[in-house]
Amino acid sequence: MDVPAKGNILGRVVPARYILAILGSIGMAIVYGLKVNLSVAMVGMLNHTAIHHAVHNVKDEDNLTVSTGEIECAPTGNMTNAKEADGPFLWSSEVQGIILSCYFWGYFVSQIPGGRIAELFSAKWVMFFSVTINVVCTLLTPVMAEAHYVAVVFMRVGEGIGGGVTFPAMHVLLSKWAPPSERSVLAALVYAGTSLGTVISMLMAGVLTATLGWESVFYVMGGLSCAWCALWVWLVRDSPQTQPLISVEEREMIVTALGGKKKMAVPWKAVFTSGPFLAILVAHACSNWGWYMLLIELPFYMKQVLKFNMTENAVTTALPFLSLWFFSIGLSRGLDWLRNKGKITTTTARKIGTLFASAVPAACLLALCYVRCARGAAVALTALAVTAIGGMFCGFLSNHIDIAPNFAGTLMALTNTVATIPGIVVPIFVGVLTNGNQTISAWRVIFFVTIGLYIIEIIVYTLFGSGEEQPWNKVPEANEKSEETPLKTKEEALNKSL
What we know:
Blueprint: H1 9-13, H2 16-45, H3 48-51, E1 58-59, E2 64-67, E3 70-73, H4 93-101, H5 103-147, H6 149-164, H7 166-177, H8 183-191, H9 193-211, H10 214-224, H11 226-235, H12 248-258, H13 268-272, H14 275-304, H15 310-340, H16 346-368, H17 375-388, H18 396-403, H19 408-418, H20 420-434, H21 440-464, H22 475-497
Antiparallel strand pairs: 1-2, 2-3
């Protein structure tokens, strides 16, 4: 039912669809910020001196040290004493991997139910649930960590359950609020919040851990996130038709551009035999391996291999995600402009975005395997790799809405569920390979596996990706018509007989 626009409050200042996108972006930033803060805080939570075997090395003239034939970087000149890095917990590499990966256990199971609930009932409240459970579990994390690492696992699973429904919920909202001509920009604005949240979280976590202690990371960041919940409830609605603060002109523009959308049954067989959908699925899974490699493991690479201290680690890890934010917004606006001018098709735009997000990081990781302890080059390469990943927001991540807007939430839930597997595997994979072997050669193996998956993504998505709406998006409507035909035929026959 349509709700009258009471004074067009939002339309006077900022269009309602952009209010939704901005708050959605902040919500994504909160969820991702609370997700990655543990990766940074854990560097200060662990007693590294007790965990790692002390190795006595002799520094050579190239700023390298040699131990049992393995090249190892020497500490930076600004490296502080061991007290900065040492915390109270004696968690092995395997335990660290479990704690970091268990987030994705909850993330894995919540997406498909969350996507369907968002489509059939309310995406607004699904997103509200996501942020709220993340805030609660974050605030409880210090107490749980003191109790036992298993308690932290439960908190992370809870955060994962909330985090798992964010993309499906926002995809449903975008399918109802984003006109096709602005779809790339609005999607990039919303999902680029993940990188903005990563930047803020990593910088804050590094500073808070070094100055106020690791516990402050969870109390400060969790507390600040509470304000979003009130704004979201007040300013956001599930559709333009139910938004009382939107201007009449904006509502009519959105509704006319999108047309009516019905709640329909998902054509599961058609979905799982669709080439364009499977291309998104493969791209999403392969890309997420690289995304989580850089998002979760980059702080450990900076410390273990490049020997950055806490402050350097936070800055060098976080700043590339800020450039990712700017790049993703710029690229999405450029591609939308070209699409609206008829220079490129939606399919081409999605493939360009995806190519940036895969080919550039793959090349950077390949180079990173051979720069060894050249810290400047390593930082530049990781920054370029993270920045280019921003192409995924206007690439395959927007593609679900293109091919089937009626099922955007479910499709996102499906691909993101499969793409969650790398989030579970990556921390354990890295933990096993680097356990007692925190060397450049161990990280080369990790990087080569990531490069291989990026190559698979490039090939599959380039060959089978599409930006065109698929026939099965409206299959239920066709079925309804086919069901009506026999009834009409019987009715006509009866009339003739009479």
